[in-house]
From TrEMBL:
Keyword field contains Transferase: yes
Keywords: Transferase
PANTHER family: GLYCOSYLTRANSFERASE WBBK-RELATED
Taxonomic lineage of the native organism: Bacteria, Pseudomonadati, Pseudomonadota, Betaproteobacteria, Burkholderiales
Protein name: Glycosyltransferase involved in cell wall bisynthesis
Record-linked Gene3D superfamilies: Glycogen Phosphorylase B (3.40.50.2000)
Length: 843
């Protein structure tokens, strides 16, 4: 079966209440116990601030691709009549989006969301109730309509509408026997279509050792300085705060001196003021009754574990989650003898009549003074709590859906002749807008926003692989990074993965992302004027990959990448190296800060792909620990670059003096360095070493290939003014790939003297030309070249000169290692390996 879980109660205002907890925890349990069934989570994009939390909550349980977001034009809350048209459109939009997923069942965790927020829940436009299953919590508003419905006509209208929708569901999953009976008695729902799945609490609520410092900090903040009686939960009138406070006031004075009454949890200011006035009216001291305000789950766990007694005096509950939370933490708990609470506590002696202040007081006093009774409460708490499990609830749901599916398998064939949902969806929305008085008034309804959300929800049969080449589009500096970008881009354009469209994109510091259609056309040899660089679209299931390196653009668009993740796009960044952080003294002063900001953004993505295992091993040291330990932790992967220049869009052309130099070099001992001149590359040390060799009479040549980089002005002056410049010392700036291949062909040995690298492409290129290699002994060179090269570890030029002299002797004797058998990848192989990583769901 394919089961869609509508997660809106975990996004609406209910996310701060028991219904929100019910939604998250039960959904997790359904996912854990899904067996062979497919589970999809559907989120409301009109409440975007809640999307990251839900995605994080299911990290490791469900692939992010199975968490989908639909969108509509907001606001749509039912309490504002001006939202009526948008709300209707949003209802159609939600149903049509879910229908496209072709679910066997849609599970709704609460049908009563959306009066004061942008949740919408209906049944019957694109799918009938025969596929909808609803959690049923209680009928409290209907039973106590004088409190919950009559004072607010807007809410009453909303509630009755949603009640009618609920009745369309094929099954109700009640959270208690009490709730199940209320559905029968007050909703007139058939009893044989209701199942009691019970309820449970999150795993965090358990008996645990509390760190003394944590306890001290919280108690100091809350002004708790003696043992306490605890209540937790909402502050509705039915929760009976006034009765509890009065019952506490009637305790003997010596007990009140021994125990605070702590009322835990946030509440509206008007409620708190009312309760505080009641405290004063009863003559209680300011330090006797403590109001905590909003607390974190960890703080609740601490209070539950440390309370002497937990009291739950509610007049009416659908289940009674707070008392089970307390019992799960080992608290001695007493509570009301009404509705569902006896099902939770499970011991008649621990119950009292919540309508009687004396009964509450007497039961509290009994628990505080009768040691045997108190000991039994403590023992029974954990034993009883153990019986409640979200996994048990989920298994009951799955079994009920399997049974329902089996009983009506023959009905499925009828759906094949139905109108295509997307066309029906668009037509009905158009009719709704056209028939409305607001439909002709653009000021009342933003049709453009609706059209945009429709396009997003409709998605596309072919997913996009959005390839960020922002730097390459602006300027191809022919650097090593840009060679990588060109090579991967060419391979993926020529061999796109099945089911994906390769879409190069770019952005600037002042402009959002656009399709790089004109650049791509020119790159492939087509007429660039035919393409339009339109703003990009995206949808759930697309992939974004920042192949290029453009720190300024990346930092500016940080929020955009988060939006992509929230919308179900997998976001990846390519990490070339960490050198400006590891070796800041080799870079311009601002480089460390600029790269640090880039890495902070990149590390907030789904995955960081490194160009070597060495970079991947170093990366965690430079990434905030929170990104490595968070629920949706950063995935770090690695691959190796390719090295066939012919597949990297090589540049061509030779300067006028090329043939003369190549002829001069023939038959000589030629050492080659290929890299931009910058401090970490080791050029200065190598030049000093060769100066010593030349003084000793060596006629070896040193050939430097690469443009001038940063912080090497002094070195450049030395080279240009050197006595050997143009004789045994040659510097070829900005030469073409064609010329470089000819230089490789006449070289004896490549020197890779860099103090740090992300990969080391020249080693591979040298191996392809079967020329020997001398490399500094750093981890990434070992990773790439293994034992196929000669390594040196020279701290100064004298040591390096000796190593060069020794190598030349070994080479003449045929004893120097040669890279003939050194493994390397073509760009086709490298691009294929990278694609395998990108198309795999992050861990």
């Amino acid at each position: 079966m394919r089961i869609v879980l509508d997660m809106q109660p975990a996004q609406s205002h209910s996310r701060f209440r028991g219904i929100g907890r019910h939604t998250i925890d039960l959904a997790k349990a359904i996912v854990r116990n899904r067996k062979e069934h497919e589970i999809l989570l559907v989120l409301n994009g009109m409440m975007p601030e809640t999307v990251p939390f839900i995605r994080d909550s299911f990290a490791g349980l469900l692939p992010q691709r199975q968490i989908l977001v639909w969108k509509a034009a907001a606001p749509v809350k039912a309490s504002n009549s001006a939202n009526q048209l948008r709300r209707k459109v949003a209802q159609y939009t939600r149903e049509a989006f879910i229908q496209q997923l072709e679910p066997d069942f849609i599970y709704v965790f609460s049908m009563f969301e959306g009066h004061e927020d942008d949740a919408v829940q209906t049944i019957g436009t694109f799918f009938d109730g025969q596929r909808v299953v609803v959690s049923f919590h209680d009928a409290i508003p209907l039973i106590q309509s004088d409190i919950y419905l009559e004072p607010d006509r807007s809410y009453k209208h909303f509630y009755m509408e949603q009640l009618a929708e609920t009745r369309k569901a094929c099954l109700l999953m009640a959270i208690s026997e009490s709730a199940m009976q209320e559905a029968v008695d007050y909703f007139q729902y058939p009893k044989d279509r209701i199942l009691n799945i019970s309820s449970a609490v999150a795993d965090i609520f358990k008996k645990k050792d509390i760190a003394p410092e944590d306890e001290k900090t919280l108690f100091r903040r809350l002004a708790i300085h003696r043992p306490y009686i605890l209540y937790s939960g909402a502050s509705d009138e039915r929760k009976n705060h006034l009765g509890l406070i009065e019952a506490y006031a009637r305790l003997p004075a010596h007990l009140r001196e021994d125990y605070h009454l702590v009322l835990a949890g946030g509440m509206p200011e008007i409620h708190r003021n009312r309760f505080e006035e009641h405290v004063k009216k009863l003559g209680l001291g300011a330090d006797e009754v403590i109001f905590t305000g909003r607390l974190t789950d960890d703080e609740f766990v601490l209070l539950y574990n440390r309370c002497h007694l937990y009291v739950f005096p509610s007049l009416h509950e659908g289940f009674g989650l707070p008392v089970l939370e307390a019992m799960s933490c080992g608290a001695a708990a007493i509570g009301s003898n009404t509705t569902s609470i006896p099902e939770v506590i499970g011991w008649e002696r621990a119950l009292f009549d919540p309508h009687s202040v004396d009964a509450i007081c007497h039961k509290m006093q009994e628990a505080l003074t009768d040691a045997d009774f108190y000991r039994a409460l403590k023992q029974r708490a954990l034993e009883r709590a153990f019986l409640f499990s979200w996994d048990k609830s989920a298994c009951r749901i799955i079994a009920a859906l399997e049974q329902e599916q089996a009983s009506r398998a023959a009905d499925r064939a009828q759906a094949s002749n139905a109108e295509a949902p997307q066309s029906r969806w668009v037509r009905q929305i158009a009719q709704q807008v056209a028939s409305s008085a607001q439909g002709s008034d653009p000021a009342c309804f933003n049709l453009a926003a609706t059209a945009q959300t429709l396009a997003y929800n409709a998605g596309a049969e072919t997913r996009q692989l959005l390839l960020d080449i922002s730097e390459l589009v602006q300027k191809d500096a022919r650097t090593g990074i840009q060679r990588v970008v060109r090579s991967i881009l060419r391979e993926w354009l020529q061999n796109p993965p099945a089911g994906y469209q390769i879409e190069p994109v770019y952005a600037t510091a002042s402009q959002g992302y656009r399709y790089a259609r004109q650049y791509t056309a020119a790159f492939q040899g087509h007429d660039a004027s035919q393409g339009q660089d339109d703003p990009i679209d995206w949808a759930h299931g697309d992939i974004f990959f920042a192949l290029d390196f453009q720190p300024e653009v990346t930092v500016v668009h940080q929020q955009f990448y988060q939006q992509l993740r929230d919308d179900g796009v997998i976001v990846n960044f390519l990490l070339y190296d960490l050198l400006s952080l590891q070796m800041p003294h080799y870079f311009a002063p601002e480089a460390e800060d600029n790269f640090g900001r880039w890495l902070e953004v990149a590390a907030a993505a789904d995955r960081l792909v490194c160009i070597s295992q060495a970079v991947a091993a170093d990366a965690p040291e430079w990434i905030a620990p929170s990104r490595l330990s968070s629920p949706r932790a950063l995935d770090i992967a690695w691959f190796h670059l390719g090295a066939d220049v012919a597949s990297s869009s090589p540049s061509t052309g030779l300067p006028d003096d090329a043939h003369r130099l190549l002829a001069t070099l023939q038959g000589q001992t030629n050492f080659l360095m290929v890299s931009t001149l910058e401090p970490r590359k080791g050029h200065a040390q190598v030049l000093k070493a060769f100066e010593q060799l030349w003084r000793e009479g060596s006629d070896a040549n040193l050939i430097l290939v690469g443009k001038q980089g940063w912080m090497v002005d002094g070195l450049v002056r030395r080279i240009r003014a050197h006595a050997q410049f143009g004789k045994h010392l040659h510097w070829l700036e900005g030469i073409s790939d064609e010329y470089l291949q000819k230089i490789y062909a006449c070289s004896t040995c490549l020197i890779a003297a860099s103090y740090g690298e992300g990969f080391g492409l020249p080693l591979i290129e040298a191996a392809q030309h079967r020329i020997a290699i001398m490399a500094r002994d750093i981890p990434v060179f070992r990773e790439i070249a293994g034992e196929h090269v000669s390594y040196f570890d020279a701290a100064d030029a004298r040591t390096l000169a000796a190593a060069l002299q020794q190598w030349m002797g070994q080479y003449q004797e045929g004893k120097a290692p040669l890279p003939d058998a050194m493994p390397w990848l073509s760009w086709q192989q490298s691009a294929r390996d990278l694609l395998t990583i990108i198309l795999t769901d992050p861990r």
